Amino acid sequence: MEQNTIIPIEIKLAMNPKSPTRHFSVLSRYNMPIQPGLIVSPCDKIRTINQEA
Predict the structure, then answer these.
(1) Percent residues over pLDDT 90 in the chain
(2) How many angstroms separate the CA atoms of 38 and 19, rounded?
(3) CA 14 vs CA 11, 26, 33, 49: distances in Å
């Protein structure tokens, strides 16, 4: 959390998770702005996930 803003980070064990940001929606209960986050997984290349949390 930085300046009352949540920046989510999640670590995945699967190479290709089906819905990688599904747990980010839990953060909405805190009534704070949620910025783009980071998902770490054991992929062999960097890729972008363009989804709203």
Answers:
(1) 4
(2) 14
(3) 9, 21, 28, 15
